[in-house]
Design goal:
This is Flagellar FliJ protein. About 10% of the residues are buried. Helix 1 runs antiparallel to helix 2. The protein has one domain. It has two helices and no strands. The longest helix has about 70 residues. About 85% of the residues lie in helices and about 0% in strands.
């Protein structure tokens, strides 16, 4: 019984470690997705600023260069949208793995708890089945 308990506790420790890893991976994926969103907002802001600056240009070459830059920024924004979708999918996958690791850890915790309870019951049963010593007679009761 004690070997079973030790085994269950070892498994619980492993599951706990897996949960920590999955939680870290999930947080990392979420952080990467948030960073991509922030960069996309910055890209849109720069594109809007460059478009306004292009409208203020008086020379043909400068206007053309500004509008070309705006066009490139918009293409980059489209690429960022695709990258953000992929990051969102990675985040969802990491979150599913975290939930699965949490469920496995809960199962291992319950099994370890049951094994500990069984060991306690076994010890109590063994103690109850041991023969009891007869009480000593006191010196006063002897004839």
């Amino acid at each position: 019984m004690k070997k079973l308990l030790a085994s269950r506790r070892r498994i619980l420790g492993m599951r706990d470690t897996q949960l920590r890893i999955a939680t870290g991976d999930s947080a990392l994926a979420r952080g990467a997705e948030d960073t991509l969103h922030q960069r996309r907002r910055q890209l849109k802001s720069i594109a809007a600023h460059m478009h306004e600056a292009g409208n203020a240009c008086r020379e043909g070459r400068a206007l053309h260069a500004q509008l070309e830059l705006v066009d490139r920024l918009r293409h980059a924004d489209d690429g960022m949208a695709q990258t953000i979708d992929e990051a969102r999918q990675r985040t969802a996958e990491m979150e599913r793995q975290r939930v699965a690791a949490f469920q496995k850890r809960e199962i291992a915790d319950r099994l370890a708890g049951r094994a500990a309870a069984n060991v306690e019951l076994e010890i109590d049963r063994k103690i109850a089945n041991q023969p009891r010593a007869m009480p000593r007679r006191s010196m006063e009761s002897r004839p």
